[in-house]
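Subject: Sanity check before I submit

Could someone independently write out the structure tokens for this chain? I want to compare against mine line by line before I put it in a report. The sequence has 107 residues.
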Amino acid sequence: MPGFLLHIGASVLCSHAGQAQATVPNPRVLVSGQPTVAITGPWMVAGCALPPPPAANGPCVTAQFVSSATRVTSNGQPLLCQDSQAICAPTGTPLLIVACQMRASAM
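---
Independent answer below. Compare away.
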């Protein structure tokens, strides 16, 4: 399914409202003047509201995307799209892509 390409300035949250940020930008492809993000780099999560054990298994600390564009790559790595899926560690919950650029899309 096609989706808009994810970039460094996209608003991405964990399921508990923590702010996620890409750690490895891809400067070879720019959208809206900002680097895109490939599937390989981990994401850091800050401000997750899920409590630590024994109350819960939080907070979310990192996340890794598990799906990406299938037909668009940069430097041999698939780029992330608005419909890409990620899993947070140690909670196992998804990241939520709230807002991203809406000009360039990929499959």
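---
OP: Matches mine. For the report I'm noting this point. The CA atoms of residues 7 and 24 lie 11 Å apart.
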